[in-house]
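Pipeline run #58 for the internal structure catalog. This entry was flagged by the ingest filter as a single-chain record with no existing model, so it goes straight to prediction. Upstream metadata was stripped on purpose; only the residue string is passed forward. Reviewer on rotation: M.T. Logging verbosity set to normal.
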Amino acid sequence: MAGTELKADMWVSEYITPWDIYVHGVNRILAYQKTAYQEMYIVESGAYGKALVLDGKWQSCTGDEFLYHEALVHPALIAHGSPQKVLILGGGEGATIREVLRWNTITKVMMVDIDGEVVEACREHLPEMHQNAFDDPRVELVIADALEILDTTSETWDVIISDLSDPIEEGPSFPLFTKEYYQKLQKVLAPKGIVVIQAGPVAPANLQIHARLVNTLKAVFPNVHSCFSPTTTYGSAWGFALASEETLNSQPNPTEVDELLKTKTHGGFRAIDGIGLLSVLNTPLYIRQAIASETQVYTLSEPPKFFGKGVNS
């Protein structure tokens, strides 16, 4: 193409739909490992900094991860108002812990991830993301299957954050996007607690999985709300969903939210404040229409499978 200069030495091509690919230019591979569960790369991209790639799918990168992690964490913690105990399922980069620990009210965070090799690689190569959050004395890191922990724990949690890799067929997480899994979360949720999940892309071309995940949560929880963030390096805006036994306020007062964050956090936000929260919570009409018309519920016998993997070249 005239006027175009390509500078990358390697390209990570991620399949978004059967007709669309997002190609990330990579300058350097910082780590590679085929673990017992997945194939992992940590790379340095030209435009968006360091990134974690699992099974060919872009997980997050230093350049725009705040758009994902702040939207994943803070709407739920703000809705709760004074969270003390938070359970994180997944979240290998440590950025989800980092965001939770912005709250001065936190007394304990347990992070459960099945792949310890990925977590250790992230600790070594992605300090910009975790910012030493793993070393905080309030954090308990557990390398285990989330289902086993949920079946055996006697603790309850104010907020549960399901920050799992996409449920591709070859990956370890596809059973964790099902009605049975959400029922397990419900059992360990404290009174007035909130569950939040990463819930797939919300572009019109691949909106169906998001709508079905929200519908699956509705089969377990009486109050569910879809939200989203403009996650640039995913090739699509990304969806999340909040679920609770309590009513969820989708239009909180921005001034009150700003005061809450000023009082109960130590700041450092790049996306979320009172007005930014409204942009996450106020879901566009086309997404609400897709959710309203959806009838399928994901189960262990019929779990979701996100489209495609990716290739490195």
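catalog note: The chain has two domains: 10-63, 65-303.
catalog note: The mean pLDDT is 92.
status: ready for reviewer M.T.
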